[in-house]
Amino acid sequence: MSADDPPIDRGRVRRHFDASAPRYDEVAVLQREVANRLLGRLDPVRIDPARVLDLGAGTGYATRPLMRRYRKGQIHAVDIAPAMLHRARRRAPWLRRPRCVCADLHALPYPDDSFELVFSCLALQWADDLPRALREMQRVTAPEGAVMFATFGPDTLRELRGAWAEWDGHERVNRFADKHDVGDRMLEAGFVDPVLDSEPFTLTYDHPRSVMRELKTLGAANASTGRPRGLLSRHRLARVEAAYAAAWRQEDGRVPATYEVVYGHAWGMEGAPQRVDETGAVCLDASGIGRRRR
């Protein structure tokens, strides 16, 4: 979101995800695919973290692979929704549980330089103050540490946003920051060598209402403080659905929903350039790692 957008109601975000926790995994197809791709991006990054932060862990889909990948590391799963964390804890093997902490990504309850890896899959889009959230991520990243995240870009749900715009002057769909803005905010936060890229995904549905129903099940309903209050009439909802179908219905009768996924990677230290060896792995010169200047 931009500075001109109304802030996110974080209490509403927590309530939405608490309510969605029992059914979240049934419909989180895109979220699982993005998590798998983000986990794959860790392959060339040769680090052996003692402490790993899974920020916005949700029901723990990525937490368990992180525990398998970094068997000697201490894994912390952080989420704003207690019900999500309860499922993340149950998902983990009983012999080795992650440390589950309910916290806001704008104010993480950890000292500086706590983690050698900060991993975050589809959580940053819920930040109502992106610069502050990125500063917190940088603050808890150790000087030699890495940050890997995925978030949503501005093309996300463009079909639904356009259908609402045709019949309603209110902001009904959350807005998401452009990758270039995210990169600028990362530099301002103190990250080193941020790299960002984006990837489009398109899901298809039998009806526009199915798109909205799935978003509600995921807990991804509009949480903007500028959202309209009151109940939505069936008549207006039908008009929005008709506008969606008229503009986007495919030859097979289904309708698309576009998601733009933005991936980001950076280092937490200052002044330590990265090298890439012949295998494509990223290497760090530990002798050049110093403390960060605040």
What does this 3D model show about the protein?
- With 294 residues, this protein is of the alpha/beta class.
- The chain has a domain of 200 residues: Vaccinia Virus protein VP39 (Rossmann fold), CATH 3.40.50.150.
- It contains 10 helices and 9 strands.
- The chain has a 7-stranded mixed beta sheet with strand order 3-2-1-4-5-7-6, with helices on both faces. A two-stranded antiparallel ribbon has the order 8-9.
- Helix 6 crosses helix 8 and helix 7 crosses helix 10.
How are the SSEs placed, and which strands pair?
Blueprint lengths: L9 H11 L3 H4 L1 H12 L10 E5 L7 H7 L4 E6 L2 H10 L7 E4 L12 E7 L8 H11 E12 L5 H10 L11 H11 L2 E14 L2 H11 L15 H15 L6 E13 L7 E2 L5 E2 L11
Parallel strand pairs: 1-2, 1-4, 2-3, 4-5
Antiparallel strand pairs: 5-7, 6-7, 8-9
Helix pairs in contact: 6-8, 7-10
What can be said about this structure in brief?
The chain has helices spanning 10-20, 24-27, 29-40, 63-69, 82-91, 130-140, 158-167, 179-189, 208-218, 234-248; strands at 51-55, 74-79, 99-102, 115-121, 141-152, 192-205, 255-267, 275-276, 282-283. The protein is 35% helix and 22% strand. It is globular, with a radius of gyration of 20 Å.
